Amino acid sequence: MNTLTLKRRHFSHGTFSTLHTQDGKQICCMVERPWLNNQPNISCVPPGTYKLIPHQSNKFGTCYALEAPTLGVTRYGPSVRTHCLIHKANRPNELQGCLAPGTHFGVSRGEWAVMNSTEAFNGLMTLLAGETWQLDIIEH
Question: Does the global pTM surpass 0.70?
Fold first, then answer.
């Protein structure tokens, strides 16, 4: 199984990361909500090893879901968190415990954000190619 690494930093207004291939190449940037003790819908997910699984969301269409039962994160439950997805968004407040890619960091509507989410999401979906991947989330 191919592996990606998410290197992230926490701030009070959000969690901002870079996503890398196994050889260290940066694929995109990512934004999440701030760390709020893994609370559903308002916190970023805990660090650790996840499976990235192709997912069909009623709200976001074709995307990817994170799964790590030992960390309390599954697609459908029972678990602490369900439906932690990678989908398009730019600002932390547009997310409910999910992750959103961007081509670079910037400011949107006066908030720290990732930019060009659709472009970054489409590139990431091409790379992932409908396969299951491993995602290692580390604090940086």
Answer: yes
